[in-house]
């Protein structure tokens, strides 16, 4: 059973060692991994949340930040509707690299992907990037910005809730068509049932007879 309204695919992107895997682990399992482990290719996590009276299932792909994996991880960008673009607040180079990552994401996915920029490690004192700088870049990217800590969990849940609400708003405004396969959104049984309840019964039957439901293509990797 597809007990959700929509399934969204998210990617987490950024330099190595900025805490991408730690953010995912904190979000999915409420744990922190103190020993640094380099992601070899991709890691995967899933969660189900409620947002704006919708049940949303998230498939989240944490991608490696090393250049040696770049050609492989680009395949995982496909059909992503949301991107968490991460940098380390104590590492200016990781912030400056966001332009490269942003361009790569748009090249592989298109301009319709929704992006949130995350300044991770805000629990540390030796920050090299100020909030106003990050906000200015987020405005340039037409993205939201949030600071978080994978260590203590500060704002980690809010990252994914914010991004999900952003996408739902675009759907409700008609700027994203969830039935268009280019967005890579999978429609669940809850949404199909809700839509069928809205359409009058007599009209529903005629629509089903005249226009058979088309199977949507969904690729998660």
From TrEMBL:
Any one annotated GO CC term: endomembrane system
Compartment(s) where it occurs, according to its Swiss-Prot or TrEMBL record: Endomembrane system
Keywords: Membrane, Nucleotide-binding
Superkingdom of the source species: Eukaryota
Primary location: membrane
GO MF entries: GTP binding; GTPase activity
Family: Belongs to the small GTPase superfamily. Rab family.
Protein name: Uncharacterized protein
